[in-house]
Amino acid sequence: MRRAAEWRTRLPGDPVTYVVGVAALVVFALHGFQGRLSRDLAVYAYAGQQVADGVPPYEGIMNRAGPLAHMVPAVGVGLARLGGFGEILGMRLVFLAVSVACVCLIYVLGRTLFASRLAGLAAGAALLSFAGFIEYASNGPREKTVMVAFLLGTLLAMTGRRWFAAGVCLCLATLTWQPVFIVGLAAIAVALLAEPRDRWLRALGRLTAGLLVPAVVCVVYFAIAGALRAFIDGFLLINLRYTEASSFFDRPGSKWGRLTDGYGLSTWVLVAGLVALTVVAIRVLVGGQRREPASISVIAVGLAGIVSIAWTLRNFNGWPDAFLVLPFAAIGIGGLAEAVGDYLRPRATVLVTSAWVAVAVVLALTYSIGARSHALDQQRHQVAMIREEIPGATFLSIEAPQPLVISGMTNPTRYQMFRDGLDRYVHRHWRPGGLAGFADWIGQQAPTVIAIGRHGVPRWLRDTIDREYRYAGEARGWTCYVNRSVDPAVVAEVKAQLKRGSPSR
Question: Which residues lie closer than 8 Å to 233 by C-beta, 6 or more apart?
Fold first, then answer.
């Protein structure tokens, strides 16, 4: 007992936070680090490699997310190069740490909002149970994980009325994934407007300063790097002019299927949490204590949750787009635990909350261990095989950065992504000839291998592919086309090996 008491005095803050963090670390680590490198994960991995090589964001690969989506993976690349281990593993370790931090932050936020450790534990267990969150915790990098961490920092700072910190965190979240700005701002606006009149202007000034500091640093960095135009295009112009949104209600059956593909049984935890948060916020709003600081924070988070739901329903392409609502669903579960406590005796409340935490951990472990994958080994084998069969092969990616990331090679152009409106941006900005001119340029570059993403050869590239390349088979996550200058027998061998595949241990 004495030793336990000594440890509690040595650990700063709430010791339960450390327990939550260790539990999250175990669950995420058990999922492994060899999961498939999808197109989207490869985009951010390749961007991180480029930044680590000294290329500013958007200059290495043109993408519509914020610059921190490129920079945070670069930290993992740098650590891997210093430590002498794989760059993909380095990035995934960094995102593992970010994911663990998210679970700890959601516990602290739930505990603070509802003045209850049990509510915090219920919220932390909910976030831990989301299958999609586990997937990217060890098989990243994905920008939305970092966005969630900064959003939680924003909400926690707002709850403590630390306005400068709230502004910094919201700006950093926005510099990772732009749509989060309106969600964080909705929460801050409610809390800020509830401030006493004599403190309102001071709070607004601190918030504004917090928002401006990272933004100014970012703009100065891009100006010094000579990449300000690329930053404006990637961060603002593409999103405002060219991005094509897809509503959840366009094909609700299909979109629901995509959601459940990513979250499985935890989809129902997600839905229940969002409903619970809305009910809890309304309950506080209509109650007699809505002017108290704690109640205002709950209302603010509830409004932000509603805004996040509206944005997600308006812009939903796949299950990762639900990351914006995950923190609010988890907080909703925490609020539900606190509300249940109002009707039960303390011991019963502890038992009910403990039962939920146990169920959530079992759900998380079931996915973490059951969905563990070694697909990355197969992807590495396939890229190594192609490079061995065609010594000195050069690669060009069209919606398929995976072989570039695995091999460490650089694409001959920053334009790799063309879906959801990016093709219109390239058509407008490539000179001469738009997309047709870009296809001609690819033919002139004559890369040995063109990697095409899962949506197939785009219409504007078909003539070049048909004229100058041979189909060489399906690799895991991309299609291989080899230049006609390569011996047909070699192409046939590559095709045969890709068809046979490689063992996925």
Answer: 58, 62, 425, 429
CA distance 295 to 364: 31
How far apart are alpha carbons 188 and 497 in whole angstroms? 56
Sheet holding 478-483, edge to edge: 395-398, 449-452, 478-483, 469-475
Sign of CA dihedral 162, 165, 167, 173: negative
What is the per-residue pLDDT across 30-39, written as a single tens digit (0 to 9) for each? 999 999 999 9
Model pLDDT for residues 414-451, shown as the tens digit of each residue: 999 999 899 999 999 999 999 999 999 999 999 999 99
Q: What is the mean pLDDT of the chain?
A: 93
Closest to 231 in 3D by CA, of 217, 244, 245: 217
- Please state, in angstroms and rounded to a whole number, the distance separating the CA atoms of residues 48 and 38: 15
CB-count exposure of residue 407 (10 Å: 0-12, 13-18, 19+): middle
What is the DSSP code (8-state) at residue 319?
G
User: What CA–CA distance (Å, rounded) separates 45 from 136?
Assistant: 13
- Alpha-helical runs (H) found in 31-116: 39-52, 68-83, 87-114
Report how far apart, in Å, the C-alpha atoms of 299 and of each of 280, 287, 289, 382, 453 are.
8, 11, 11, 52, 44
Look at the block and give the residue holding tokens 């336990």.
4
**Percentage helix, strand, coil for the chain under 3-state DSSP, each rounded to 5:** 70, 5, 25
Q: How many CB atoms lie within 10 A of CB 251?
A: 12
